Recover the amino acids of this structure.
């Protein structure tokens, strides 16, 4: 099924989810089995899981065993067919993911990788990248995250205080739209 089926879960996380679910299901489906054995087994598995996570942080070799390295799909504007097969994805899927990143021509892509989490990351040649305000020396503009002030037909006064406004400002803003 490939990496798409487990999406954001790593190999170790996916294996733990399946195993723990299976261990819990047995005593729940058979009244004759006690929960004690399952609890001990789950505890041991969780300790082993924590040990594996710790080892993957400390040893690079172990990390590569648990989390595979990215697979290069495009190099210098050319699709690497062998690696598409290795990643178990089709050219159509690759093109679809590139379109989501606003890539209209594979020739513009310097590199594209199939990441261990199932996503595709692409890097355009510098001459094909979008301009930023920094590129054309525009002055910096302040940026604030959007805030929902009205939630479920009620004013969120906590958010309103954060932006240093009052209820009258909200009413006037609603009336002007």
């Amino acid at each position: 099924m490939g990496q798409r089926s487990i999406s954001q879960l790593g190999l170790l996380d996916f294996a733990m989810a399946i195993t723990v679910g299976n261990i819990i299901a047995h005593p729940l489906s058979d009244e004759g089995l006690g929960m004690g054995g399952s609890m001990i087994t789950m505890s041991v598995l969780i300790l082993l899981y924590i040990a594996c996570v710790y080892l993957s942080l400390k040893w690079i070799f172990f990390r590569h065993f648990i989390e595979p390295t990215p697979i290069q799909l495009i190099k210098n504007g050319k699709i690497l067919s062998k690696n598409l097969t290795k990643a178990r994805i089709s050219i159509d899927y690759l093109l679809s993911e590139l379109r989501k990143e606003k890539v209209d021509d594979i020739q513009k892509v310097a590199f594209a990788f199939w990441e261990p989490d199932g996503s595709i990351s692409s890097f355009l040649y510098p001459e094909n990248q979008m301009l930023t305000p920094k590129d054309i020396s525009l002055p910096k503009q302040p940026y604030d995250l959007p805030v929902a002030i009205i939630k479920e037909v009620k004013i969120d006064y906590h958010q309103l205080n954060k932006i240093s406004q009052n209820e009258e400002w909200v009413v006037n803003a609603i009336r002007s739209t």
